[in-house]
Design a protein that fits this description.
This protein has 566 residues and is α/β, with parallel strands linked by helices. The protein folds into three domains: 362 residues, Glycosidases (TIM Barrel); 74 residues, Oligo-1,6-glucosidase, Domain 2 (Oligo-1,6-glucosidase, domain 2, Alpha-Beta Complex); 71 residues, Golgi alpha-mannosidase II (Immunoglobulin-like), CATH 2.60.40.1180. Helix content is 26%, strand content 16%. A hairpin with a 4-residue loop joins strand 7 and strand 8. The site of alpha-D-glucopyranose has 9 residues, from loops.
Amino acid sequence: MGLFPPSKLGFLDKITAMTLPWYHKTTIYQIYPRSFYDSNADGIGDLQGIIQKLDYIHGLGFETMWISPFFASPQADLGYDVSGYTDVAPEYGTMADGLKLIEETHQRGMRIVFDMVMNHTSSEHPWFKESRASRDNPKADWYIWKDSPRPLLEEGSGVRAKPNNWQSLTGGSGWHFDRQRGQFYWASFLKFQPDLNYRNPEVKKTMFDIVRFWLAKGVDGFRLDIFNVIFKDAEFRANPFSFKLIPTDDDPSGFFQQAKYTLNQPEGFEFAEQFRQVCDEFGERLSLGEVSGNRQLIRKFLGGQKNDGLTLVFDFAMLNFKFTAGYFGELIQDIEATYPDPFMPVYVFSNHDRRRSMDRLGNDLRKARLLSMFQLTVRGVPCMYYGEEIGMTNSRLPFAAALDPIPHKFQFVPRFVFDMLGITINRDDVRTPMQWDESVNAGFSSAPQTWLPVYENYREVNVEVENKDRSSLLNTVRTLLNIRRDFQSLQEGSLELLKDLPHHILGYKRRLQNEMVCVLLNFGETQKTFPFSAEERLFHLTPADVHQENSARLGAYGGLILKLAS
Ligand code: GLC
């Protein structure tokens, strides 16, 4: 059970064991540290809290944890604004806690991945403070500084022309004037997150050394924040016009311009390979990129034919999934056609920035169970956000009191507009405390007040209640993770979509050598019976799901995992 360093495997194990590197056959659980478990009663989750809950994650069967940033930060973007890459923010604990977390994770045979925010720092980072102080200090060229192309537009007005038309990822110009230095700096995200200048070799070297620092401490890899943003056009050419207002996951053009010169530059693909080489100095380490763009683009960040770029890249288009067999069938087909083996897709349906999947599923637990069955059996690395395993749903917190900076930027837009578009603009809504039990604060904290209010449904939706219910989402996820671990074909086998199945049924075969497992999923609300031969039933999702002799029956939103004769 679990993962062990290869040296601890016996001879026989080695023969039957992995044909793939561990990071291509693992399962990932994302933890937002502020919301997972508060060990010191200050209302904020912390590293000791994660340590105390490691047995929960291990018991569920997840093999790798990705921890959102807990480094020194003014927390203006809740940790995605780093002011010290090798320091732990005091509300999360100390460096000793960080090292203990790595050690305790490894003791359980699990892996741990940190979150590297390389594109930008906080404007409070000492590097930026130094850089903005003058035009000739040692860090003067560490950020992206530009003069205004024209003097003051109107004498005395204080209005200056921006260096070019580039828009930030959050809308509006990403150029911000700094009075101290008398120049504009570029920020791809928010004003207080100035972009580092990776065309300066010193910056790249410093960041790679920080990566090495953590790898040497035993971290198993990184999730890489807005990785496709790191390089901007060297000549600062103007972005062309686009009719598109809102950026989408498969096309980042938006705010009426194409992101031609601000994202996805060729230097970024080389950077992916260089980053990978740094990781490889330490053996098999995971690098999981956050990239916005279509599948051809994802493929480029994964590197050449041998996957020598990032080991994994998120495919965010699927965050907007439609709950139909047709949608998921096409998704698989498209992924397998664009980046097939030896590339490995990541299947992700929510994260700390986006709607929770329950919200998209109309809070229907039957659908959530089927979705988890798909996610944990399809060819790919599943990445599950904390709370998804119990069906936590979006909260609905007031914009004005938001701790997330994004809604403040859009205060002028009425909320119903975002509702209509299905966009969670206040990310606080998906970051509420983990719901452990029925007690005060859902068992998350014993503080009088938690950093965000616990969501109101915690008495029904929590780990303790769901542990007792055999058919709960939580127990479904646990059982599926167990099956995945027992059948190597589910971890690393090939995938073949089954044809000629009844309407609403999705089916695929996973195969590794002579082990063959088949998954049948009913995305419809009516029971379906059809001819199907298999050797043995390994799992059924609803009581109505049966396999008998040569036929399969699937109840509403039912699912079967069957072993096929080899
Ligand atoms: C990524 C993170 C998000 C953060 C942003 C800026 O999209 O997931 O939480 O606000 O980058 O770092």
